[in-house]
Amino acid sequence: MADANFRGQLIDREELAKVFKNPRLVKQFENVISDVVEAIPVSLEEITVDIANAQATADLALADAATAQATATSALSAANTAQATVDALALRDEPLPLVDDTTILVSALQHNSFSVTLGGNRTLDAPTSLVDGALLSFALRQDATGGRTLTFDPIYNFGAAGAPVLSTTAGAVDYAFGYYDADSAQLLMTFRGAVSSAATFSAHNNGTAQSIPDATGTKLTFSTEAFDVGARFASSAWTPPAGKPVMLMGNVVLTNEVAASIYVSVYKNGAEYKRGTQIVAHATAIEGAHVSCIDIPNGTDYYELWCYQNTGAAVNTFGAATLTYFQGTTLAS
After folding, report:
1. What is the pTM of this model?
2. For 280-304, what is each residue's pLDDT tens digit?
3. Please, what CATH class does the domain formed by 200-330 belong to?
């Protein structure tokens, strides 16, 4: 019986024959051993190669995992960036309180809506980080004192009307809105006065007479305010809020003793705006005149009541609140 060689090792068939008396069993055993040996690496070199191949496969799998991790990290970063953008845009809808200072600084980097309470006369600086088409809004509030003014940087273009004058009432809030045009480098602005911009007044002299010179238009002065809603009547002049139509009324009665003419006028910004009925007296009498008119002020317009008489001498007014008075009110628009 020839010896079998299993991966370089001789197996004595005669010894096998002693174990297996049946030649067929010997053959079967040889086949089993052969199958087992085929599954075993021939040498340490082959084992090393197998290990190296396994390591290479593991390295590839690890690289794939790292790539997948990088992709996931990138996706998470993109999601965070998108969320940050959403959050930033959401912040734009909530007015950003500006720091009240002599010059009020504005940055349009993350907000386009702003508010400020004015603690003194201020200047609103040009916004930084503007982009073409940016929409900006400003809520401009008077403090508890009121009467604060605001100067706008030249970038704020309010058109032909010019920069507005703020409401002066304590706590009043005015609103300014702008569109940034990069071509002209201008914020094209509109303005809305304080929502609570209704105003009305009534003034008289509380019984005190005023002397009106002969043939000289004279401003009537009023020492007493019956009421002044909006605190806009001062120095015998009324400065109503912008945009709302107003009605003005004035009446004067003189202690005249000779035939003469008399009329009373509403003056706007120092010039006659509307003249009332001119009365020409032909005998000794008490003379009076009345005027009423309607206008739409721009927020800086001021109105006064003036009187003219040509009796040849100075004549006093009757100071009674029922006879000589000046009144005005805003109308629903």
Report:
1. 0.47
2. 665 556 678 899 999 999 888 999 9
3. mainly beta
